[in-house]
Amino acid sequence: MNSYDTTPLLTQRANLLARLRAPVEYDMAIVGGGATGLGLALDAAVRGLRVVLVDSHDFAKGTSSRSTKLVHGGVRYLAQGNISLVREALHERTLLLHNAPYLAQPLPFVVPAYHWWEAPFYGVGLKMYDVLAGQAGLGATEFLDRRQTLENLPTLRESGLKGGVKYWDGQFNDARLAIALARTAAARGALLVNYCRATELLYKDGAVAGLVCQDQINDGEFHIHSRCVVNATGVWVDELRQKDGLSVPAKNGQTTQVMVAPSQGVHMVVDREFLDADAALMVPKTSDGRVLFAVPWLGKVILGTTDTPRHDLDLEPTAFDEEIEFILHESGRYLRRPPKRSDVKSLWVGLRPLVKPPQDEGNNTKTLSREHTILVSRSGLVTVTGGKWTTYRAMAEDVLDKCAEAGLVEATAKGQTQRLLLVGADGVERPIRPISEAPGWHSYGNEQGFVRQLSGADDVLCAGLTGAMVRFAVHHEYALRVEDVLARRSRLLFLDARMAIDLAGTVADIMKSEGAAAPDVEGFAALASNYLLQP
């Protein structure tokens, strides 16, 4: 699908708002432009439903651009005995790698063994991972001796190393996958509008019948009428649920019970020399029992861990200092050259929406469900949360099943997105430059030839970003602000925050020359400073 033939008309802001203003009754209105909402918009549009999606900020602004960049079945979930979740994720992993091969690819992982029992202990579980994957496997698990382990991870700490285990999972570019989903859904007829906040729910005869939305760029208000409204706002689902006046109240007359317990994942980026490998390092159990990753990504290395309880829901959360020190310390136990604060190029935090059991007051997010949950309120508001990027497509199918079961949409045949190539994927053949390497033209799949023809193709702003790419982002990828380009269309903010700040003015000038009305350089500089780690 060469969507650039049609996308300019689909993503120009004035055209989008004109369509939003039109007196149309939609089959489904979706609030939230992350993995869940975008996947649902695509699946519903492919089934022939009239779909509109709005997001208060940019697509994938929240959790969906802040993942560890892994497409995985969930090795650690095997230890929890959640076989069905692992099996589903492994199946969906294969589909994602097929449908967006230039954005999602296989990646080898090595679990080092510094005690005699670690390799056989973890190896048995990883062999089970292979069995569950079956024909969907990406490569066989291998036991490595000391020499082979160092060949795969040459910068690993050698002292005490016994060997290791190598297994396969997937890696992807999360924010660019989100944009590919948005553009593919748009090409199938869905209306998607970023920077448009849902402020109220509309009702008819006691049932949810639409939304009131506010344009965050020019303050216009829109009334959207829809048979079905889906709340897919991730960790923020409870905010819209509280606005649903007919939701089932909690006990003692309190407002609707909170259903999400946020869990933070802290990630920091260092230069590739710290790992200097095409394989990732995975430590299944750190000193406090969590997982630690060192993952090569877009020419850098992501260090990170997950599962720290967090109670605030800031859209731009900052890392706790103890988490920063923990990651640096644990990484230093496994890498030959321990990273220091001054080595960190960018630091970011993602909030995961873990589903909270009824009346649960605990703070241990490691025990909460990784599976998604779908609720339908008395008034018909559909809320979906939980899950993960890998299973976004399966989540969409489950939501549509639930909506049909509740009589909110017509029942339609599922499975239509299983082998649906996303924008840019048609005709893309392997081998492709791995996601672990520095970004470049290959990040655009079969559209790279078109992007190269745009003005500024030879104007290199930094590695992986040209003037042509900025223009493409404005005209074809919904980019309205400097942040959209530097954080999500390119990933520079997540790779090198200082460089992103330095380039903001240049990017803004290009955007203005292409008609973007709100680049907001000062706002970006303030935001980007949170990605810098002070020595």
Shape: globular
The chain-level structural class is alpha/beta
The CATH class label of the domain at 3-63 and 176-257 and 368-405 is Alpha Beta
**What fraction of residues sit in β-strands?**
15-25%
Main pleated-sheet profile: 9 strands, mixed
CATH architecture of the domain at 3-63 and 176-257 and 368-405: 3-Layer(bba) Sandwich
Number of helices: 17
Low-pLDDT residue intervals, each spanning 5 or more residues? 246-254, 359-370
Share of helix among residues? 25-40%
Total strands: 21
Output the radius of gyration: 23 Å
Corresponding CATH superfamily of the domain at 3-63 and 176-257 and 368-405: FAD/NAD(P)-binding domain
* Distance linking N and C termini: 47 Å
Mean of residue pLDDT? 90
Query: If you consult CATH, what is the topology of the domain at 3-63 and 176-257 and 368-405?
Result: FAD/NAD(P)-binding domain
Question: How are the SSEs ordered, and which strands pair?
Answer:
Blueprint: H1 7-11, H2 13-21, E1 25-26, E2 28-31, H3 35-46, E3 51-54, E4 70-71, H4 75-79, H5 83-99, E5 104-113, H6 118-133, E6 142-145, H7 146-152, E7 163-172, H8 174-187, E8 191-193, E9 196-204, E10 207-215, E11 221-226, E12 229-231, H9 237-243, E13 260-271, E14 280-283, E15 292-297, E16 300-309, H10 321-334, E17 346-355, E18 373-376, E19 382-385, H11 392-405, H12 448-452, E20 460-462, E21 465-466, H13 467-476, H14 482-489, H15 492-495, H16 497-513, H17 521-528
Parallel strand pairs: 1-11, 2-3, 2-12, 3-8, 5-14, 12-19
Antiparallel strand pairs: 4-7, 5-7, 6-7, 9-10, 10-11, 13-16, 13-17, 14-15, 15-16, 18-19, 20-21
Helix pairs in contact: 3-8, 3-11, 14-16, 16-17
